Amino acid sequence: MTASWLPGLIAAAASVSCATVVAMAAGQRGGAPVWRYDVVRTYPHDAEAFTQGLVYRDGFLYESTGLNGRSSLRRVALDTGRVVQRVAVDRRYFAEGLASWGPHLLQLTWETGVGFVYDRASFKLVKTFTYAGEGWGFADDGKQLVLSDGTPTLKFLDPSTFAVTRRLTVRDGTAPVDDLNELEVVGGLVYANVWLTERIAIISPDDGRVVAWLDLSKLTPDVASPDAVLNGIAYDAAGDRLFVTGKMWPRLFEIKVRRP
Question: Strand pairing partners for 257?
């Protein structure tokens, strides 16, 4: 999602939506459990990167960064955090979520309803696509694309036509979980950052139920900006490694979730 200082979002930055608060409280009071995790390794991360989307492929991290005039698509060396390839996004667009599909990278924008398809090897722009509503998080489940738009509803898209094939409302117990943001599919479950919180919702794609939460507040760095929130989830399926970071965080973490 976007910067807290942008017009119309100052109030939102001061408080999490009521639905999100209810859902988080429900999780703490006997709703979805909070799963534990271990930090396996810490890596450098560009503290100037306003992280909006994160993907791991081909031994590299691919990162979408936001803000008008600063948005980009990046290939990043995991061990060093060095940006080894970068393409700027036109300043008209505020880049958002990022997904990988076949040989391509797919990047959303915030309020413009325009997405970009890049060749993953060269970063050459192949084509654009359109979608209704805002673009926040983006991921794939191996069959379809999954899009979040800041509401409790996830949209599943056909990767060829980008048409919406299904909608799924995410709930913790009976409470809808608002502000769903950056996405990743891990072991058949959808992991979603909840904007302006330090928690990740782990969601069943079958019924939208939050099966567990991750509380990553202990990883949050001491950064002055209110926009430096948790945002960025990538999964190395071959190595079974899960990576998390945040906007303008100086570090990226490999964590191991302790599933019961």
Answer: 37
Closest CA to 220 of 256, 186, 250: 250
For residues 194 and 201, the answer to whether their CB atoms sit within 8 Å is yes
Q: How close are the terminal C-alpha atoms of the chain, in Å? A: 31
The more confidently predicted of residues 60 and 26 is: 60
Q: What are 66's two structure tokens?
A: 């936001």
* CA 115/CA 77 separation, integer angstroms: 25
Are 227 and 36 in contact, with CB atoms under 8 Å apart?
no
pTM above 0.90, yes or no: no
d(CA 95, CA 118) in angstroms, rounded, equals 13
| Token reading at 217 | 């507040």
In the chain, how many H helices and how many E strands? 2, 22
Q: What does the alpha-carbon distance between residue 44 and residue 80 come to, in Å, rounded to a whole number?
A: 6
Tell me the per-residue pLDDT of 157-184, one tens digit each, with 9 for 90 and over.
999 999 999 999 999 999 999 999 999 9
Backbone angles phi, psi at 131, to 5 degrees: -155, 155
Give 13's DSSP letter: H
